[in-house]
Amino acid sequence: MTSSERSNGTVDVFEQAATSYDRTGVSFFGPFGAELVRRAGIRPGARVLDVGCGRGAVLFPAAEATGPTGRVTGTDLAPAMVALTAEDATRAGLTHVDIRMGDAQQPDFPAGSFDVVLAGLVVFLLPEPEQALRAYARLLRPAGRVAISTFGAMDPAFVAAMDALARHLPADQPRPAPTDDPFADDQTVTATMAAAGLTVTAISQHRVESRFRDVDHWMEWMWSHGARALLRHIPAELLDAATTDAARALAPARLPGGGLALITTIRVTVAVPSPAAACPNDPS
């Protein structure tokens, strides 16, 4: 989250969600964070930055990968996220982990500070993702790399349920204007990275099945993360009807024995500074 987003309430959304974020018993952020770290190829002793660290889905696997000889710094703009994740790190005895307030759009560190910069499910939230990626590249040491995760295909039942909820928003509530997605597919991701001075070395996809006891559990999970931004604008007197409509939309995700299962795909992209960007003054 960035200071630019504070004015439109994004930081407040995650601030309010912090205590339950990734704490509702649903397998989602954890597996995605672990996969991003695995694909980043972090080695023991590495210096790592995790932007938009939230409650540590990427940060803690990164700390395990670096080991105590390394250093992992996590940043977030939601004070509660920073405080709670710092408490978790202290409780776990991770003295090589540092969590602080920081802007994922404009990380404030000296050039060449890190071997790896990680951004788990965050760059698409930023007002200027290309500029942010360029900033990440600047922070890399020689042979360093940037690794990001972005959403791929969403479960059709989830998309339908989100649409069902959105139909209960007040008529005067602004809807997001359609925009070109700079992370829509492998080609656009590669182009976005190239525009930021980064060369993609690997793109992979990872699917996770998330299970829910029932629709109420799904709604509890929805309130615990960024979907809160939509839910909080639905009038309280319409929430029950909205939940009922979402439940109908989720019917294809129902399991024979009860509960729900949704499949989400992420795209993990690893990139390194392009030669021209790394050596702008090279006459060759």
From TrEMBL:
Annotated Methyltransferase type domain residues: 49-148
One example of a Gene Ontology biological process annotation: methylation
Matches recorded under SUPFAM superfamilies: S-adenosyl-L-methionine-dependent methyltransferases
Xref: Pfam families: Methyltransf_11 (PF08241)
Gene Ontology MF annotations: S-adenosylmethionine-dependent methyltransferase activity
Key words, A-Z: Methyltransferase, Transferase
UniProt keyword Mitochondrion present: no
Record protein name field: Methyltransferase domain-containing protein
Species per Swiss-Prot/TrEMBL record: Micromonospora endolithica
